[in-house]
Amino acid sequence: MKKLVIASNNPGKLREIGQLLAPLGIEAVPQSEFGVPEADEPHCTFIENALAKARHASHHAGLPALADDSGICVAALGGEPGVRSARYAGEPPAGSPRGRDSQDARNNRKLLAMLANASGRNAHYYCVIVLVRHARDPEPLIAEGRWHGEVIDTPRGTNGFGYDPYFYLPEFGRTAAELSPEEKNAISHRGQALAALTARLRAVHGAW
Questions:
Q1: Which run of H or E residues covers position 148?
Q2: Catalytic residue at 69?
Q3: Which of 68, 69, 104, 164 is catalytic?
Q4: pTM of the full structure
Q5: What is the CATH number of the domain that holds 98?
């Protein structure tokens, strides 16, 4: 496999996945280059949403497709934001700024508001990655990763995206946004999932 389509338009995800796949000699092309429309993500689990996105992108691009679904899960909130992480605060009010940075800021404000009276701040990032050879592939490769930390009130760091400035890693004494891209890719939920997927891909190389 030399080329695949990434079923995402999120700049942060595209950057991280591209960096992680580069050493494998796989060209990862964003779905936007094929005019692939956004897929619906109506499901309540990460795995169902990832599969839906991968099959959708593969169908439109005519290539193997990789999709991830990921988010932050906070124990005190019963696992929320979970699959709603990217749109936790809903759509922006009319006339307010739009774009990824604005959405991230509103999501983080809502998360902190929800945790104002919570008894704990333990959280983890979760990621599931799905790779399909074609849209109707009956044997998708699936891998997952979890990255444990806690939510803090004051943002730290300028790297990463999403909830990273508020996701504190006690063993490092830093937030995810204070790690370099190389450090983050080595230990993050997405890095773990892609490493596991790579191992599975090697194991079934003859079939792929």
A1: strand 141-151
A2: yes
A3: 69
A4: 0.88
A5: 3.90.950.10
